[in-house]
Give the backbone structure.
Amino acid sequence: MNYRKFGNTGEQISALGFGCMRFPEYEQDGKHFVDQDKVDEMIRTAYEKGVNYYDTAPYYCNKNSEAALGRAVKGFRDKILISTKLPLEVCRKEGDLRRQLETSLANLDTDHVDFYHFWGINKGAFEDVIMAQDLLLQAQKCKEEGLIRHISFSFHDAPLSIKHIIDRSIERGIPMESILCQYNLLDRSNEEMLAYAAGKGLGTVAMGPVGGGRLAAPTELGEKLTGKANLPTYALAFKFCLGNPDLCCALSGMQNLDMVEKNTDLASDSTGFSEEEWKQLGESLEQLKKFNELYCTGCKYCQPCPANIQIPHIFNMYTHHNVYGLSGHAKWMYGEYVKKDGKLIKDCLDCGKCEKACPQHLKIREELRRVEDILSKL
Ligand code: SF4
Ligand code: SF4
């Protein structure tokens, strides 16, 4: 495993982080459970292969992720870094941050969180909630008590807001210590700001290094972009992220043991791209832009939809057609979905909830109409 200096936090972080939002789950009597045996095996394998950064959040996996992670790391908790998150909507009065943190600590069955993130913030939330309630100070107090080791934020907004948040936290005298944001081959919009964050001493972590799974599917894209035969697209996607010196760690939401094995191998390989290969990749990426007209990361923040429209699944089918050129497969997926009475835009109740929740600011209803039309005609 390759390790990197994690900004000025004093930590060394593994180049691969374990995103705990896609643990295997099952449903019983209408309730959702995490398959703990599988999770234990995946986490132990990742740990043994050197992964030391594990990122969870209170709402992941039907609110079961924190507890499942806590159980899985028993025996080596002190050898790893745990990150979890604060949903800002719970912060209404003094003490709410502390109460939420205590819930996470109890779920994780630990006495401290290594990286506590203000979750999915934008500039507005930073000013209206964090600064207005002086949550940085509340977090600092928890840090002084040893409940938090580092104060961090995860981010969904226009890139320049990253600079605003970092600068304002420095002005407040309680600087953010690490950032988690989108960055991958298909979305390089935060690249400049990652460099800014690294320059200010923050540790930097990328979420979605394989583009919400799109770059994980087997395609010819890797070969097309680099001219290298036998380079799977997901390997290219990881190499791309980890080739950025301003990035400390690429977080992957691993779903099974196979992914853990593959990703840990990639993050342990120190062969990057040569200068010539970077050049070719840069040129090819320009071509890739045309693939990028629809950008759904599969984060599922738009779910559940009251009309039960499986929005990320529908966008994913479209991506198979549009990005990977796997039109036959997309047609089959769409046929299966319709056959099983999957809900479509015609069932939409126009509540608008999905669009408010979408961190990519997609015009979801408009996109569904367009995408379903294309899929139905394949
Ligand atoms: S606007 Fe339509 S698609 Fe979006 S959440 Fe509401 S019912 Fe679902
Ligand atoms: S439509 Fe938006 S909220 Fe829904 S999964 Fe895609 S990116 Fe996430």
